[in-house]
Amino acid sequence: MTGPTIAPVGVSAGLYGLVAASVGDLDAHLRSLGAWPRLDPSAIVALARTAGLTGRGGAGFPTARKLESVAAAPGGPAVVIANGGEGEPCSGKDAYLLRHGPHLVLDGVQLAARAVGARQAHVYARDAGSGDAVAAALAERARAGLDTVPVEVVEASGTFVAGQESAAAAAVQGRPAVPSGAPERVFERGVRRRPTLVQNVETLAHLALLARRGPAWYRSVGVPEDPGTFLATLGGAVVRPGVVEAPHGMSLGDLLAIGGGLSEPVRAVLLGGYFGTWLTWPDHADVPLARPWLRPLGADLGAGVVLALPTRVCGLVAGAQIARYLADASAQQCGPCLFGLPRVADLLARLAACETSPGLPTEIERVISMVRGRGACAHPDGAARFVHSTVTTFDDEVRHHLRGGCTVRRAV
Amino acid sequence: MSGTRTRDRTAARLHIDWTACEARGACLELLPHRLTTDDWGYPRPRDGGSEILLHARDVPDAEEAVALCPRMALTVLRSPGR
Questions:
Q1: Tens digits of per-residue pLDDT, A316-336?
Q2: What number does CATH give the domain B2-78?
Q3: Is the pTM of this model over 0.90?
Q4: Burial code of A9-26, b = ≥16 C-beta within 10 A, e = fewer?
Q5: Chain B residue closest to A332 (CA)?
Q6: Do A336 and B49 touch (CB under 8 A)?
Q7: Where are the domains of chain A?
């Protein structure tokens, strides 16, 4: 499997709520925040709604609506999964939270369980390190008698698709972490056929702070249509790659500046990771990172991965590498994904290699249309979106390549 | 957009469990006016896209496809779309 060319290496502290409140052990956590407040279920949902909290696993679904759907689904009591599966190789923020702020996440788990009437919860951790941190935190909480719902730690398999909602539900039941093709959604029928709330660990950490500080505090940063802060994982050509926290609405340039700025000249930034969208640089440096500005660009923050592509790397070559990675990462369960993603990756690789076949871009779009929406999970859709963004963002480069040249390699 | 009109005429959706489907083609024979194949033989709505919307007159054929699919990959869903 072709590995990513660019990956985060470190973690740097941000200035806002989540990172500041990620304090490690239980004594420090209780000194700074106290025990999680025993709010009524309806009050917890109302907090999420008033604050405008949205899911941070990538899809950005409104948290209050998800809580309500699970609470209302028949067949309970419900189950909660804190999703820290984080299959995206360039993302590090969920592992960061589980290692440095496990009590914040676990407070959020208890609040979410209360909101949906769950009697069992699972923390789905990306790797052994973050799983061990959560297990140690759970032991501290058990001694303090802090929690009302039992929580179990499950380690994810480390594959790209392991973070998909139905894959997480399978994994906590001891089955392989692959998506399910069943017609029922996980919120209706998930773990042991019970309504199941799968919520990203960052979302739960936000909920834990919201329950103490209230929606007005949450909305005091960010923009009205996209309030609060988000965790980002900076990677690629930045001086200090790693996890940072920023308010929604901060410009792309200012976000990269938190990471020390760019380490070399950059041609584009991939926003939202391998399922994301390229934004050319520097002309998008001033774009505020919030829905009202990103939506018209066809972009979103996804799970907060921000990768800066240096000018010395051709956008089509980088795109072809990522497309190959995504093809290899398919769970290989669903035909259109199994056959379509390798075909798309091959076509993009031929384009990247300056093959002068004028039909390549059209054929790429045709095959993309055959994989989009035709799988058990969002993997083919995300891959299709990424490849579409690659060939449209680097359209000048596409024209050069179709003539046998490349602006990076200067080969004609 | 014909979204509203389409919804009015849509009685149900045909759900494909893509993890089970192996392109055996029973659904294609029963719903030839609704389904065609992609490059690999998997069913695809004739109007493009991914969602297989069914009119009321299609539902009996769709139910027969559900019963005859050798992979048991099909479900007729009456609930509104995702």
A1: 999 999 999 999 999 999 999
A2: 3.30.70.20
A3: yes
A4: eebbebebbbbebbbeeb
A5: B19
A6: no
A7: 18-218, 222-310, 315-402
